[in-house]
Amino acid sequence: MTTVADAITALEAAYPPALAEGWDAVGLVCGDPAQELTRALVCVDPVESTVDEAVELGAQLLVAHHPLLLKGVHGVGADTPKGRLVHRMVRAGVALFCAHTNADSADPGVSDALAHALGLTVTGPLSANADGRTGIGRVGELAAAEPFAAFVERVARALPATAGGVRGAGDPDRPVRRVAVSGGAGDSYLGAATAAGVDAYVTADLRHHPAGEHLAAGAGPALVDVAHWASEWPWCEQAAGVLRTALGGTVVTTVSTRRTDPWTVQAAGAPTPTGRSTG
């Protein structure tokens, strides 16, 4: 009999808890390690829609990238949004396991999955840990250079669609071959991307001032900004593969396709104002 504990063993071997940042909350959130496991669901966000999906599938395990209870709590009452999810999972017999910054730093990890989706051959971490193999982000190369505008289109085709789409900042004709990627919010690694000498940097949640200051410096890569959820969604198939391989096909493992990006609508702004005489 395969159990939830067997899945945890496999996931922690692939994404060692020791790689997690000190502020992070990873591992088993709720559920019985001794419970028999026949079906698992992998997602980015443990939210109402993915918990619904796990229950509908009859899964005994929900594997998520983002933690449910990242900040300290004094209770999980069912009268709170997160408490309701915990109670629902417990009642339905669904265990929740989270692999967050440990999956970001693992080799392979979140950014390897993103790089693979973009057609990059990974050459190493963007910001390496002491062992040189693990760390945040990845640097990789395309088989051949292409204009930045075409590369932005490549990113958009490779990732699931979101309301915000994919944004690029840089010369559309700039040749791009060497690329840095960092799944999730990555503007704190703009300096590392510049130091790596890459042509483009793909990440999520780029803020106005850090991006503007980076571009004004003039020596760094062009920027591609994608939705946080979309940048990490390729990891789900990687984690599902860990379970399929380690558990010998005894557990039906599904990747959630429910879009949990919070943005749902996009509207174009007004045209740029031009000078107008009112006299």
UniProtKB/TrEMBL annotation:
<feature type="binding site">
    <location>
        <position position="66"/>
    </location>
    <ligand>
        <name>a divalent metal cation</name>
    </ligand>
</feature>
<feature type="binding site">
    <location>
        <position position="232"/>
    </location>
    <ligand>
        <name>a divalent metal cation</name>
    </ligand>
</feature>
<feature type="binding site">
    <location>
        <position position="104"/>
    </location>
    <ligand>
        <name>a divalent metal cation</name>
    </ligand>
</feature>
<dbReference type="InterPro" id="IPR036069">
    <property type="entry name" value="DUF34/NIF3_sf"/>
</dbReference>
<dbReference type="InterPro" id="IPR002678">
    <property type="entry name" value="DUF34/NIF3"/>
</dbReference>
<keyword id="KW-0479">Metal-binding</keyword>
<dbReference type="GO" id="GO:0046872">
    <property type="term" value="F:metal ion binding"/>
</dbReference>
<feature type="binding site">
    <location>
        <position position="65"/>
    </location>
    <ligand>
        <name>a divalent metal cation</name>
    </ligand>
</feature>
<dbReference type="GO" id="GO:0005737">
    <property type="term" value="C:cytoplasm"/>
</dbReference>
<protein>
    <recommendedName>
        <fullName>GTP cyclohydrolase 1 type 2 homolog</fullName>
    </recommendedName>
</protein>
<comment type="subunit">
    <text>Homohexamer.</text>
</comment>
<dbReference type="Pfam" id="PF01784">
    <property type="entry name" value="DUF34_NIF3"/>
</dbReference>
<comment type="similarity">
    <text>Belongs to the GTP cyclohydrolase I type 2/NIF3 family.</text>
</comment>
<feature type="binding site">
    <location>
        <position position="228"/>
    </location>
    <ligand>
        <name>a divalent metal cation</name>
    </ligand>
</feature>
